Amino acid sequence: MPEPAHAAQPRTSQDTDDAVVGGGPSSVSPCLAGIHVLPVGERTAIRIDGELDFGSRQLRDGLEEALDGSASGVDLDLGEVGFCDCAGLNLLLDLRRRAMDHGKTVTLRVSCPSVDRLLELTGAWELFPQAAPASKSAGAAPDERVPRVDVDGELRREVAELRRAMRTRPGIDLARGILMATFNLTPEAAWTVLVTTSQNTNTKLHVLAQDLVGAVQGKPLPEEIQQQVAAAVTQARRVMEAPPA
After folding, report:
1. Where are the alpha helices (DSSP H) in 51-150?
2. Could you report the per-residue pLDDT of 41-85, keeping only the tens digit for each?
3. pTM value > 0.70
4. How far is CA 50 from CA 44, 53, 57, 79, 212, in A?
């Protein structure tokens, strides 16, 4: 069995302290995830473990290197991912876009609850097709391999997703502004409150945004959403007020 071609370990506090700009303290968020790469035939298997958040942007080079080194694309194993936020999802979407640009595919071989929830809430499930079982990938016949991407079909699907996002984005931005003004939150913190509440109440982002806007206009907000918003705001403010590492 071939050894992993690449493994990215989580950054330590010492790594973060060593990253400085102009001699000042670093503002780079620590990476709490690692990647393990294993070429399998024409494709490359990538296992990601840890937490996919803002600091995971530091995995981008390793992921792109694995994609570029594959013939037809990569199969992701996210079974060991314990947490994933919008920054982590954006990392996966960027990897998919790069694959499309090169006529390759990014598939999900194994997922996890946090990624499943984000893909469902954002309507991005169809962008990541299910990979073939690993046992078939290594010795599969040519007609059994994961097909190369249908660029025209993928572009039409992406256009449809963008149109849906354009219809729902104004309401989401308005809800985020309401949270910023009401609770004195930063734009990033307000977005985190929206996403966290959406996940914890199993409510789509644009529906949650409509509820929040309606509450400002005098419509009653469901008690469960009230409780989850309050808890998310408390957590967001704690993060905002925490001293830098």
Report:
1. 60-68, 86-101, 113-122, 134-137
2. 889 899 998 888 877 788 888 899 988 888 888 999 998 888 888
3. no
4. 20, 10, 13, 10, 32
32-to-102, 154, 237 alpha-carbon distances in Å:
29, 31, 22
Find where tokens 């995995």 sit. 59
CATH topology of domain 6-149: Transcription Regulator spoIIAA (3.30.750)
The secondary structure element, H or E, covering residue 241 is helix 223-241
Give 162-224 as a 3 state SS string. HHHHHHHHHHHHHHHHHHHHHHCCCHHHHHHHHHHHHHHHCCCHHHHHHHHHHHHCCCCCCHH
* pLDDT tens for each residue of 196-241: 898 898 888 888 888 998 888 888 889 999 999 999 999 988 888 8
Exposure b/e, 32-50, CB count within 10 A at least 16 = b: bbbbbbbbbbbbbbbbbbb
Q: How far apart are CA 144 and CA 87, in angstroms?
A: 34
